[in-house]
Structures are given as C-alpha cells and as structure tokens.
Amino acid sequence: MEYLVTTVFVVTTLLTCAGMFVSSDDRLLVNMTVVRSAAALGAYCLDGSLPAYHIHLGFGDGANNWLLQFEGGGWCNDIETCAERAQTRRGSTRLMTKLESFSGILSNNASRNPDFYNWNRVKLRYCDGGSFAGDSKFDNGTLLLYFRGQRIWQAIIEDLLPKGLGSANKALLSGCSAGGLASYLHCNNFSNYLPDTTAVKCLGDAGFFLDSPDINMSHTQRTFFQHLVTLQGIEQNLDENCTNSISDPKQCIFPQYLLKHITPPLFILNSAYDVYQFHHILVPPSADPHGHWNRCKLNPQSCSPDQMNILHDLKCLQP
Ligand SMILES: *[C@@H]1O[C@H](CO)[C@@H](O)[C@H](O)[C@H]1NC(C)=O
Ligand SMILES: *[C@@H]1O[C@H](CO)[C@@H](O)[C@H](O)[C@H]1NC(C)=O
Ligand SMILES: *[C@@H]1O[C@H](CO)[C@@H](O)[C@H](O)[C@H]1NC(C)=O
Ligand SMILES: *[C@@H]1O[C@H](CO)[C@@H](O)[C@H](O)[C@H]1NC(C)=O
Ligand SMILES: *[C@@H]1O[C@H](CO)[C@@H](O)[C@H](O)[C@H]1NC(C)=O
Ligand SMILES: *[C@@H]1O[C@H](CO)[C@@H](O)[C@H](O)[C@H]1NC(C)=O
C-alpha cells in the first residue's frame, strides 16, 4: 500500500494561477525549441504543426534538478471550437510567440524564485486543446484536426530525458489551469520515466477542476469534460487503476477521482474562490440566464450574503 503524501495549500485570493504577474524591466526571454522528432511519433498540434517547449538550463547546485511546467489555456471539446483554436496560438506552434517570458517559478531571479531559480526549467507549450492527454484525429476530407496531446507529452519527455532529465536528482512536474490538470493526469507516467534515485513530485496549480453540480443542480462541467474526453480520445490514457475502479471511466479526468491513484507526492494549489470554478462550474451562464450573479462575479464584494454562502460551500468542496 502506497501512502499518498498530499500537501494542501488553500490560497484565498482571486488569482487564477500563481506567479502570473511580473514587472517588465527584468524579464527573462527564452527561445522556443521545436521537437523535430515528434513527427515520427505522430505528435502534432491541432493544426498539424510540431510541438515545442522552452528550456532554460540550470546551474550551480540546481544543475541536476528539473522543473517542467505545462502551459494552460482552456480546452476545445467539439469540432467547431477545435477548428477555431487550430488557427490561433493555442492550437498551433506556428502562431505562438517564439520568445517566452519566464516568470514565477520559471524565473531565474534568486530573490523572486529562491527554490527553483537555478534548476533546469522547461515550459511545455499547449497546442492540443486537451490537457496533453488526447490521442485521436478528425478528418472528413476538408478538415483535418489532430488530438495528440498524449503523444506530444511523450515526444517532449523523450526529448528531455537524454538532455539530463533522465538522471535528475529532483524533478517537479507542474502546470497551471488546463496545464495544472495535465500535471495531475501525467504525474504517475512522469515518475515512471525516471529512475528510483530521482525524487519526483507534482504540483497542480489551479487545476483541480471539480465534478460538482452548478447552482441549478445541473452537471454543466461534467458534460463539458465528457465531450472533451470523447472527442479527443482521452479515456484510453486515463489512469487504469482509476478507470477500473469507477462506473464511468471518463470521470477519471477529474482530479477528485484520480487523486488517490497518484503515487508521487503531490502539491495541490487552488484558490478557494478560483475564478474558473466559480464562473464555469458553480455559476455557468446557463445556470444564471437572468444574470443575478453578474455583479458578484465581477466583484466578490458586491455578492449578497446568500451568494457568499454558496461560494463558501464551493470552497469546502475543494481538497
Ligand atoms: C531580482 O528581483 C529583485 C526583487 O524583485 C529585484 O530587485 C532585482 O532587480 C532582480 N534582479 C535582476 C537581476 O533582475
Ligand atoms: C531562436 O531560435 C531560432 C531557431 O533556432 C533562431 O533562428 C533565432 O535566431 C533565435 N532567436 C533568438 C532571439 O535567439
Ligand atoms: C468537415 O467538417 C467541417 C466542420 O464540421 C465542415 O465545415 C465541412 O463541411 C465538413 N466537410 C465535409 C466534406 O463533410
Ligand atoms: C507513459 O504513458 C504512455 C501512454 O500510456 C505509455 O505508452 C508509456 O509506456 C508510459 N511510460 C512509462 C515510462 O510508463
Ligand atoms: C495501479 O496500482 C498498483 C498498486 O498500487 C501499482 O503497482 C500500479 O503501477 C498501478 N497502475 C497504474 C497504471 O497506475
Ligand atoms: C434549472 O433546472 C430545472 C430542473 O432541471 C430546469 O427545468 C431549468 O430549466 C433549469 N434552469 C436553468 C436556468 O438552467
């Protein structure tokens, strides 16, 4: 029996992800590395472009430690939204900025990022629309879309292993939002790639998306994620121990069901009033057609006492 070491931080602010704000004067810009070997694995972005990451090498006593961060940016869960996304920077590395600003836990400034500033730090660009977990394709003759997040993850890992990741002392898999979800989904797989001598941990930042009814008791989010899992062929890549232990295997995309099957130590970082959970899971527009929650959504200080009670209940549902 493995014991799960789960450390829970609850941050009561409205920030969606940690470390998103940075002053412009001391930005570290890191060039993009396109993963050429991905083509052989059929690992493509939505539009067929090659996947990419940005890497800033470690130094000093951080030279053998690795931090990987999945980029976030929502999902596409039907052909229409994925076709749109394929023509944006969220679905094509061709359309992405080639120089990426490394801030927060990716910063190389020791006073801002004392724990990781000298680690090897890698940002995995998000271009599959399915939290790096799909394996499928849509092709009807005029439109071709790749749902190959799982292969992109593997192509990037296999590219990094010989660059030093494969003999890391410490390795942390992190990500924000849709990337935070990816770090839950791939945590076990990540540790399986690394030797027993590597201390592996994972960090999900604003990625604990809840399977919870909205204020009208509809499962709006469950429906959204079920469409995502089905469209992108994600089910086959979900943790087997989870999918074997639940009546609907698709539910294992939700961290709340996956959690007990994740073996490495896991840090969960989620705001108690996470904007996404509030605006899309608890009070999606479909559950509030008259906009009674609009003012409260824009400014929590203008929520009524009843609305605050409902928000506090959301906070308590989180880990
Ligand atoms: C590092 O961050 C500190 C604190 O924000 C700042 O004062 C300093 O100028 C930064 N150093 C560099 C080299 O940018
Ligand atoms: C980024 O990398 C590309 C490809 O290697 C290179 O052509 C370009 O000059 C680099 N840009 C900068 C600013 O280093
Ligand atoms: C393929 O699918 C797209 C998006 O649904 C649609 O616009 C297009 O007409 C379809 N092409 C064919 C040949 O059915
Ligand atoms: C990671 O997951 C993929 C897809 O399930 C699998 O093919 C691969 O063997 C796994 N890697 C390791 C090291 O377990
Ligand atoms: C399932 O759990 C067993 C026992 O904890 C473990 O040995 C195995 O690696 C797990 N399999 C997957 C796919 O996570
Ligand atoms: C709320 O749920 C009820 C019962 O399922 C349904 O009839 C009603 O249309 C829903 N209202 C909204 C605003 O979604």
TrEMBL record:
<keyword id="KW-0961">Cell wall biogenesis/degradation</keyword>
<keyword id="KW-0134">Cell wall</keyword>
<dbReference type="GO" id="GO:0016787">
    <property type="term" value="F:hydrolase activity"/>
</dbReference>
<keyword id="KW-0964">Secreted</keyword>
<protein>
    <recommendedName>
        <fullName>Pectin acetylesterase</fullName>
        <ecNumber>3.1.1.-</ecNumber>
    </recommendedName>
</protein>
<comment type="similarity">
    <text>Belongs to the pectinacetylesterase family.</text>
</comment>
<keyword id="KW-0378">Hydrolase</keyword>
<dbReference type="GO" id="GO:0071555">
    <property type="term" value="P:cell wall organization"/>
</dbReference>
<dbReference type="InterPro" id="IPR004963">
    <property type="entry name" value="PAE/NOTUM"/>
</dbReference>
<dbReference type="Pfam" id="PF03283">
    <property type="entry name" value="PAE"/>
</dbReference>
<comment type="function">
    <text>Hydrolyzes acetyl esters in homogalacturonan regions of pectin. In type I primary cell wall, galacturonic acid residues of pectin can be acetylated at the O-2 and O-3 positions. Decreasing the degree of acetylation of pectin gels in vitro alters their physical properties.</text>
</comment>
